[in-house]
Amino acid sequence: MKFTLKIWRQRGPNERGGFVTYSVDEVSPDMSFLEMLDALNQRLIATAEEPVAFEHDCREGICGSCSLVIDGVPHGPDRGVTTCQLYMRRFADEKTITIEPWRAKAFPIIKDLVVDRRALDRIMQAGGYISVNTGGAVDGNTLLIGKDEAETAMDAASCIGCGACVAACKNASAMLFVAAKVSHLATLPQGKPERTRRVMAMVQAMDREGFGSCGNQYECEAVCPKHVSVRFIAMLNREYLRSGILGTKMPARSDPPHGESY
Amino acid sequence: MITLDPNVPAGPLEMKWDRRRFSGQLVSPTNKRRIKIIVVGTGLAGASAASTLGQLGYQVECFCFHDSPRRAHSIAAQGGINAAKNYQDDGDSVARLFYDTIKGGDFRSREANVYRLAQISTQIIDQCVALGVPFAREYGGQLANRSFGGVQVSRTFYCRGQTGQQLLLGAYSALCWQIERGQVTMRPRTEMLDVIVADGHARGIVVRDLVTGRLSVHTAHAVVLATGGYSNVYYLSTNASGCNVTATCRAWKQGAAFANPSFTQIHPTAIPPIGDHQAKLTLMSESLRNDGRIWVPVSPSDRRPPHAIPPSERDYFLERRYPRFGNLVPRDVASRAVKAICDEGCGVGPGGQGVYLDFSDVIRQQGIDIVRERYGNLFEMYERITGENAYEVPMRIYPAPHYTMGGLWVDYNLMSTIPGLFVIGEANFADHGANRLGASSLMQGLADGYFILPYTIGHYLATVNSPPITEDHGASRAALERVKARLKKLLQGKGRRRTAASFHRALGKILWDHCGMSRRAAGIRGALEAIPSLREEFWRDVIVPGSGEALNQELEYAGRVADFLEFAELMCHDALHREESCGAHFREEYQTEDGEPRRDDDRFAYVAAWEYREGETPVLHKEPLNFEFVQPTTRSYQ
Question: Is B440 inside any structural domain?
Fold first, then answer.
C-alpha cells in the first residue's frame, strides 16, 4: 500500500510548527500505524534526517503512551483502540493521512507529536488515591464487595490516562479522566472515607491546570480506547454536588447538646 | 574482588524473615527525615518501594523515563497475581506456593527468598484491596480466583485481563499521595545512565533529562534499582519498546555481579510473528490456557482449515505428553513443546510458526457468554491484530521472549554486591530460579517494594553511617564524564550507514537462534564470535541524527542498543558455561531420550554471578544453593 502523510513537525516547545508531507510506500496492510511510522523514521534516520518524534511504549493498548490525532480523530478511525492498535488495513490505499499531536492548552507540545501530559498526574496527586499506609491492611475478604459494584469500579478504573478524551473535546476538558478516577474510588467501600474531599480536590486541580468545562457532547466517550462511559461524568457531577452539600463543615460548638458535666 | 554472601538468617524456614526483621536495626524517625534514597523505575516494584519509603519518612527521589510513572511495563501484565490465601479451600498453603515456585524454577533459586515471597503473598492482596484495586469478586462479594499455568490450585487474583494495570495504578496512587505530601520528588522523562560508586558504596546516579538533554548528578544515602528486565535484547519480545538493560548493565560495569543472565523466559502464548516490519510480539494471556486446548494437525501436510479437521486427526500434544497438567504445564515446558512440534513441520499459519489454541469445546460446554466475560478483551485484541475472530476460528499462538529471571545478584536483603545498591523486581535475579510461574512476577515486584526492601534498607542505613557525597566528588565527576563521553561517541560522525534498529534486529536474530529457546555449545560459540564484531560495526557505522541537547528519541534508543550489544555477550557466556538443561535454559546436549531436560545438580546447583572485567571475559562466581527443606527432584509434569 502507499500513503501520503501530512505530519505535524515542531522542533521544540517554543518553536513554530507546521505540516510536512511525506510519502510512504511498500506499506503492508498487517502493519500497525506505529510500525508504518517506524518505517518512515528508519528511512529518515538513514539519510541523517531527524525522525518524527512520537510516544509509544507497550504497543498493546494499555500503557497510554501513544497519542496521535489521525485525520482529526484522537487514536484514529477505529473505536475502542489506541493508536498502537490501529492497523493499516483499516485505510484505503493511496490515501492522504493527517497526523497531529494532542492539542490542548494543558498539554504543551514538547516536540513534533510529543506533548507534556503531566497535568493529569498533578490531578491524581491532588486526590486520586486512598490514603492508606503500607502494612496492617485487613484481610481482603473482610470487605465484601458485590459483583456489580466491583464491575462498575473496574469499568471506571480501566482508564489508561492517555488523554484522548481531552484531545477530542472542543473545550479540552478532562472531565472523563477525572470522572473515571473519582467514580472508581467512590464506588468502592475503601474509597468512601475520603470521597467528599477527593472530588473537590481533583476538580479544583483540573480547573487549575487549564482544562475546559464539559460540553456534554460525548466526543470523549467516542474516542476513549477503553470505552469509559460518560455515565461516569454524571457520577462525578453527583459526587461533586454531594461534596458541595456535605463538605460544609458544621459550626464547632463549645458544649455538645447532651454534654456531660464534670 | 566480589564475595557472595547470601546473608540468609539461620533457623527454620518459617522463622527466617521474622528473625531478620527483629535483628535488623531501625532508623529513628528524626534520622529518616535526613536520609535520602534514590529509586529508579516506577513499575510495581519501584512505585511500591518509593511510596512506602516516603510513607516511612525518608526523602525519596524517584526517576522514570516515561512521561508519567503510571506507564511502566508492569502495566501490561494481563493474567493475575498469586497469593497463598487458600480462599478456595483447595489445598493451598504458604508451603505449597513455596514448593510450586521453587519446583517451577527448577531448583535454581534460594529457598529462604522463595519462602519469604510465599509468606508475604497474602499481605499483598490485602494491601492492594485497601488501596482500591478492583479485583474480580464473586456474587457474594468475596474475592474471586482462577488457576494459572503450572499449578493445580486456584490462587490467582485478577482484574479482568488488566491485573498489571490495576496493581500498578494502586502503587501509582500510593506514590501520588507521597508526592503530594512532599515525601517523594518525582522526576519523569529522566533516564539513569550510570551509577556512582564512592568508597565501595553506591552513592548516586547520573541521569539525562530526556526533554532538555541536560545531564545531572543525584546523590543519596542509598540507591534502589527497579528497572525491569531485558527481554528486548532479542529485539522482538512481548516487552514494551522502552524496556532495556541499561541501568542494570551500567551497575554491572561498576561492580555489581550479574546473576544467571541466560535465564530468559520464552512465553508460549504470543501471537505468531508475521514480517520484518514488526516492532513487537503481542502476548495473549496465559490464562487462555485454562480453557483453550492446544493442538496441531497430526499430519504435517494437512492444510485443511481447522474446523474441517476431525478430532481423530488432531494432535493435542500437551495433553498427550503431559496428561497430569495438560495445557497448564509451566511456560518453559509449553514453549519447548510448541517449538518442537513446529520444528517437526506440524505448525500452522504463515511459515508454519504457530499452533492452534482452540476454544470451541469450552464455548460448546459453557456458552459463548462465559468465554466472552472471561477473555473478551483478549479476543478483541487478537482480532484487531490478526483480523480473525477467535470465537469462530481457533487462535494461533507461538512462543515469544517475555521475562528475564536473570538479573543483578542480590542477597537476602535485596542488596547487590555494591553495598548501598539495592535491586528489586524483575531487575534482580532472586526468586524465580530458572523459570518463572505465571502470576508470580506481580507478586514478587510488590513483595520486594511494599514489604521487603523498606525493612532491609533500614538496616543498611542504620549501620552504615556515611553522608552522601557531593556533586563535585571525584566519583560523581568520573561517572558524569563516562556518560558524556559515551553520548558524544554515539552522536559523532553523522552520515554513516546503519540505523540502530538494524543492529538491534541483527543482534536479536543471533540470540534467538543460538541463545533462545534451545541452545547448543557450537551455536553459542558462534554467537560469541558474531556479537563483538557486530558491536564494533555498531560503534563505527551507527547513525544518530540530531543533538544531545534536546528530546532525541533515536539517541536514547541507540544508547540502549549499545548496552544490549555488550550485555548479549554476557548472556552467551552464561549459557555456554551451564552444561545442563534447567528451566528455561535448555541445552540440546543435555536431554533425555524423550526430549525432556536433564538437570545436573552435582555440577550446577549454584547461582552463576558474573563480575565485569574491562576488556576481559567476565569472571564467574558461584553461590551454592543448599536445599535444606526441599529435596530437588526431577521436574516432571507428565
Answer: yes
